[in-house]
Amino acid sequence: MDPEQRKIPSIFHHFAPDLSTGILEQSPEIYSYYIGGSFVYLDQADILAGTHPLYWNAAIVVDRKLDILKLVNETRERLLKLTGIIQQECPEELFQVPSPDSEYWPEFDAVRFAGYDESGFMRSVVIMSLEYFFSDSPRTRSRGALNIYSYEDRRVYRSNRPGRVECQILQASSLPNGFVILHDQWLYEDSMRPYDYRRDPSDLGFGQTTDLLLGGISLFQTTYGERITKHVLNVHDHATGEHATAKSLLNSAFFSNDYTAWVNEKLNSYTITEPPLPVLNSDIVLGLARQTALLSDTWTSEKLWDHDPSRSAETVPMKFVERYEHDIMTSAKQRSPPIEYGVSREWEVTTVEDSGKSFSMLCKETPFAAWELEKAVQASAYYPWVRVPRISDSDLLYFPVVEHELESDIRLRYIEGGSNNWDDAETLLHVEMVKAEIMLNAYKRSLRNPAVQRKHSDELLGSLLEKVAAKETTLRELYGDEIQLQPGVSVAIEEFLDMQWIINNERYPSLRQMLDRAHEDLHEAQSGPIVFGLGDASAPHTMVSPKTAQGGRKIIFDSYELSGYRPLMLDVARTFYFDVFFETAHLSNLTSRGWPRVTYEVTKTTIEVTYATNYDWLARAIADIKMRYLINPLEKEVESAGFSFDTLIPELSGNILLLPALYQDFSGRPEDMITCLVNGIVMSRCRSFKDIYIGLQNLGFDILMI
What we know:
Layout (H helix, E strand, L loop, with lengths): L2 H13 L5 H5 L4 E7 L1 H4 L2 H6 L5 E8 L2 H10 L1 H8 L3 E2 L21 E7 L5 E8 H5 L10 E6 L5 E6 L3 E5 L1 E4 L5 E6 L1 E3 L14 E3 L1 H8 L1 E2 L4 H18 L16 H12 L13 H5 L6 E3 L22 H8 L5 E5 L10 E9 L2 E9 L3 H12 L9 E2 L4 E5 L4 E2 H10 L5 H26 L2 H4 L4 H12 L1 H9 L2 E5 L2 E4 H6 L1 E4 L2 E3 L2 H14 L5 E4 L8 E3 L10 E3 L6 E4 H13 L1 H4 L12 E5 L3 E6 L5 H24 L8 H15 L6 H15 L4 H10 L8
Parallel strand pairs: 2-5, 4-6, 8-14, 23-30
Antiparallel strand pairs: 1-2, 1-13, 3-4, 4-5, 6-10, 7-8, 9-10, 11-12, 15-16, 16-17, 17-19, 18-19, 20-26, 21-22, 23-24, 25-28, 26-27, 29-30
Helix pairs in contact: 14-15, 15-23, 17-20, 20-24, 21-24, 24-25
């Protein structure tokens, strides 16, 4: 018996003393059982040293999907004995697997169940079925997808190969009951490699569950377990042409030397039958960048799970408002508006007590109180966790105080800290995944509502068109009669608009010509799809909660003053620009700049720019998230609503140009202005969905069209 198999009696004893072949054979029968986690992977000395997180992972395989429901809902005590859990992560009355007549039933393949053992260590188990692996009936999703019904909401996993692959990012669907469906998959692949050709093993990573199936210990040697392992290995070897090894596994960083040797021996014992994909031409491979964040395949449900987001809206209890209006308060302090829109007058944070309970609220004085209240109420019908204010007779607004961090503060801290803080990176990626989900669902809700499509956005669009048409006046309001291009070099606004641009040796039209083209494109928005949008859901307007009990984070947008019914791509543009081009858009907020973005020369008629295209892995991953989980899924929704998706792209690209050209004020910062205008100018050429990817690639993001 090999050393790792000799561990099994010890695992039986420490993992679940009540575990036996008898309990496995009870109904529903357990066909295979895998155990993993740091208690299995580490040497005893490392376990005792306490330098690594200690936890158990498990995977249980039953016969049919219906048996998963029976095991969790009907034989919970047995499941607790099987897993050694004494304190469930979620109360039993709340954690019930949806029944076959539930709308959730077709959407998941497996269930994640978790809790704590008698020593307080986390234990989690994914319960799957043989039906999932070997059913002959056609499946609606790819065979590599594994959709898991889960209480925990974890979407980002750190890789064991930092510098090559930093992390895996999986999509999730939030459900109204507080649970999520995690869209895991067997393999996470570098989408820069064409899917029809063989991939380098370093460009792939096993998913969380398949990682356990291959790297964990099978407590009961069964033919079913052997078949599942071979099934998964076949997929890997088909894609790579090479056998998987211990280093292929996400958790291999925890493996002791003995355990690594054992895993390698186990994986090598399998004979793979599926032929590998053909090899890609080496010249093509050399021309492709390599992704350092592996994202799951895009998956969106036809359903809108949360039919009423307003249920999660937050408001101030009326009794605290009444005590404040009667001057019964504990403390109060003035503060400036966190976001300047020109309509906020005065803010006050106050704490009020009642019956021993205290409540902090933000009191806002504004001449547009009723209008802002209406905007918040409207937003709560489309977006979760909206803070709906109370309004007083004197037109004061009262908001619940939410002491969350702004996403922009987290990202600035990450950049200033050398772009190597994993906790901040994980938070930002999770936030971007949640934000894409929230925005997409809000847009779906609008696009599927005929009443919304009859709304008019003439006033908003008319104001925007006037601003573009009066570009000289707009620029004078920002910069005066002349605009500074270099220290000591300024030109008249008219001259600036007529200068030609050369970016990385490629010639572009004058800014005047590009803005005129954007004006024409924006006219077309009058006949396009309408959505209720926030106007700006970018990082400076996104508040991020601490981790919730479920491991996720709440996302709260901090202002609804710009929200309303508007053309779809007008709403997407601002969030896309300020999040994707965050570093360049916020250069003035960065105290240290590790590398120059641009060098440029100015002549009487041209601005010639050399652009350094070296965004870090996190920036590229965020750009990929925007494209993969927000822009791409919109195509199907737009087409279903009766519109052409590609005809909307010029509206998006034109708006991306307008933001640095006519909205941002770069007075005294000519290099920042040139840098941001380069982003807008390059993206303004995008006339189709494919062009967006080309524009991002030209700007250094190295993401490939999916």
